[in-house]
Write a structure and sequence with these properties.
Strand order of the largest sheet: 1-2-3-4
Shape: globular
Number of strands: 4
Number of helices: 9
Number of domains: 2
Oligomer: single chain
Radius of gyration: 16 Å
CATH class of the largest domain: Alpha Beta
Helix content: 40-55%
CATH superfamily of the largest domain: Response regulator
CATH topology of the largest domain: Rossmann fold
CATH architecture of the largest domain: 3-Layer(aba) Sandwich
Length: 186
């Protein structure tokens, strides 16, 4: 089902009626509370994946959205092809973070302290490697090829990573790792 909404109240009404697989929304919608709306959406409709499509390139907005449960963020300057590919990636369980944010990750990754984060010490070397590849934007297939394992093995590693870091999805795992300084020890 496809639908649209002019404000947050209308969006939640339609979510209940349409039960979509994916919601594409901005961080800031009329009549809403930004990231709080994403949190509410994920609580009320946990099976719906959220893709943020926004004009904001503020990294705090992006990270807060991901922490609230969004599967990814894309700038509204993206072309139609990039938007469609992002929807496909999110629908297949992958994550998308727009290139501007990805470009900032290496510096953040180098300046982090993984040892200070609960859960990170318990990640195996292969799980750390997998998380690092996810942070670089690699798909499950690309990770499998790089690590010379099956996609099933990659999915199993990701499940363990999410569990150990108490993350809701791979995008949130990267956000947690980035904001808490976990990625510079890879």
């Amino acid at each position: 089902m496809v639908g649209d909404a002019a404000n947050v109240s209308e969006a939640f009404t339609k979510l209940g009626e349409l039960q979509p697989d994916i919601v594409i929304t901005d961080v800031f919608m009329p009549g809403g509370g930004g990231v709080d709306d994403i949190t509410r959406l994920r609580q009320e409709f946990p099976d719906i994946k959220v893709l943020i499509f926004t004009v904001s390139n503020n990294k705090d907005d992006v990270f807060k959205s991901i922490m609230a449960g969004a599967c990814g963020c894309l700038l509204k300057t993206a072309g139609l092809t990039e938007l469609i590919e992002s929807i496909r990636l999110v629908a297949s369980g992958n994550a998308i973070v727009f290139p501007l944010m990805t470009a900032r990750l290496p510096a953040q990754l180098r300046n982090t302290n993984w040892q200070n984060i609960n859960g990170f010490k318990s990640l195996s070397p292969k799980e750390k490697e997998t998380l690092g590849l996810v942070a670089q934007g690699a798909t499950n297939r690309e990770i499998a090829e790089y690590c010379r394992v099956s996609e099933t093995m990659v999915k199993a590693r990701l499940t363990r990573i999410l569990d150990k870091l108490s993350a809701k999805n791979r995008t949130q795992a990267v956000a947690l790792a980035t904001t808490r300084g976990l990625l510079n020890q890879l």
